[in-house]
Amino acid sequence: ATPTSIMVGTGRGAELGVLFRKGDALQVMEGVKVVALDKTGTLTEGRPELSDIVTADGMSEADVLRLVAAAEAQSEHPIASAILRAAEERGIALPKVDKFRALPGYGIKAEIEGKTVLVGADRLMEREKIALGALTDTAASLARDGKTPLYAAIDGAPAAVLAVEDPIKPSTPAAIEALHRMGLEVAMITGDNSATAEAIAQRLGIDHVTAEVLPRGKVKAIEDLRAAHGITAFVGDGINDAPALAAADIGLAIGTGTDVAIGAADVVLVSGELPGVATAIHLSRRTMRNIR
Ligand code: ADP
Ligand code: MG
Fold it and tell me: Which family does it belong to (predicted)?
């Protein structure tokens, strides 16, 4: 009877857009205590827009955006696309970039027209010893609104604070409520700014937040959650989520996410919709109840 019930559960899942890729996923899922979610592209659309640009004294918005967008044109990060679209909308022509480096989890560094251009999180500016002065207040206030603040520096001097805003997916609030009703803890793991992450978590009623995690740090965050709460599921979409998807007791990939994430997952939410997480756990509970 056991294999039959598992087959029925797996088949029902497939009908509901929840693909159990590994045999024991349906069994392990029953005991899940905490569901950890990646933020960008999982809780949010993953398509941020530039919402604000506040320049330092004496800097023009167009001049800053011209250099910043040129540098970001070399980056693959969703933040880069947001800044590029904003420059395009304003009809800004981009200069040639002579040198470029992506610093994952920090930001980017480029040489343009003989100037050194830095764009990224506050920890990039710390690392490069840029004194941010009054811009930190502006950034803090943008973060409290749930926006991600970024700094730009040109030749060692702060030039602007920019903010990008990534809309929460319409189905996210109901998905989190469903997990809470099932008695589960809900956590967020993100590389984004802490204050931004806290603002979004508060809006969504998320119980635990781990923010400003470097790409390799997501696995550690999963291990900490497991030690504190027990069996841990992780939901993610990105290349940088693959190690955490593999490390979690159950890894669930957003079906519209990257192939690398899907390859590392035990369960694929085909529709890309987060309510599939609760569906998967319901199915698992019902299947295991039938077996006993
Ligand atoms: P996440 O995908 O969760 O945002 P990342 O590790 O990709 O995590 O990025 C962490 C932070 O590093 C971003 O929130 C941003 O502050 C900074 N960053 C990364 N790439 C860029 C970029 N191309 N331009 C500006 N900032 C960046
Ligand atoms: Mg993501």
Answer: Belongs to the cation transport ATPase (P-type) (TC 3.A.3) family. Type IB subfamily.
